[in-house]
Amino acid sequence: MNETWVPLMASIVIPFLGVFISYQNSRQDPGAIRKMRRHAQLLEILPVSAQPALETLLTSEVEQYAARQSRKYERKIDGNTVAALVLIGIVLGLALYFLFQWALIWAPAWIMFGIVALVGLTLMGVGSGQLFKAIVEPSEQHSE
Fold this sequence. Notes:
Elements: H1 5-25, H2 29-45, H3 51-73, E1 75-77, H4 79-105, H5 109-128, E2 132-134, H6 138-143
Antiparallel strand pairs: 1-2
Helix pairs in contact: 1-4, 1-5, 2-3, 4-5
């Protein structure tokens, strides 16, 4: 049975996992918008005496959302993290390829294959969360 496609797919899929996780993390805002819309609709139907508390909550949510959006636009991709993710992906792909070939010969090597794959995927997942870094203005660097 010729199963040479498995290590090839493992070495291709793992680097793209970081991009997929980063994309999933960037899609979190629609939930915040829906929540603010619900609170705004609730504010319209509440009695006047109960509105100040909800106005405070809504103002806080809008400020937090605006801060998140401005941080999102004021960041850039960290080249060191990208290089590390690419390096981890290449090393992990090669390691999984050779572990897979070894596991075809010696069955207990599947355990090591699984451990290396799990550790590598965890590193890729954690690293993709660090893909962006905030741009710090020169005036802010001196005040720290």
